[in-house]
Specification:
mainly beta, 16 strands, six-stranded antiparallel β-sheet, single chain
Length: 213
Amino acid sequence: MEYWKEKSVHFAKFSRRARMELIPCLREGELLVHTYGRFKKEGKELPIIMVNANFFHLDGGYSITGMKYSDGTVIERSLGGFYVYQDMDGEVRIDTIKDKKISDFAGACWALESSPLLLPVLEASVHMEAAITAEAHPRTAIGLTDDSVILAVTDGRPAGLTCYALAELLRKAGCHTALNLDGGRSSQLVIRGKQMNRQWMRRKVFAALAVYN
């Protein structure tokens, strides 16, 4: 695992064949450092990296906007977004085709829907407001090089990037494909139990991507 920071953006890089999981937090939401602490207290295997996953409904509850699939369980229907997933061969992939069916990912270890697609071209799904992509906000994204996964997480406000600027940073880091995840106060990058990005008003999240040794 490689970590570095460029201005207000934190990067974590690891193999595309590293073991990843899509893990639920508490039903009422949870800060990722607290998820890590809870796992440690419960004697569970500890991830080396945790990052917030996709968007959720602001009315509360364990309700994620867009499909989430893990361990044979599907939460929420597809909203016509884009997908990051780990196939049965253990390789992390990002699907650039919209309107996939949940059944298309039945053979995946896990799959997660989000928007907008950042690379190879910026494209938002129909449920994503165009203004969100053009405005500067704290961001979280996942990108792929030929052999690595790169997570990019900005510091909290007043730091922030447009989706265009974030896509360019990921391109410069070597990514050919990238997908935006939840941002704003949800943006949290936790490495070995420590939150790396500054975030003064953190939001509890409902699901996370975790990377293991």
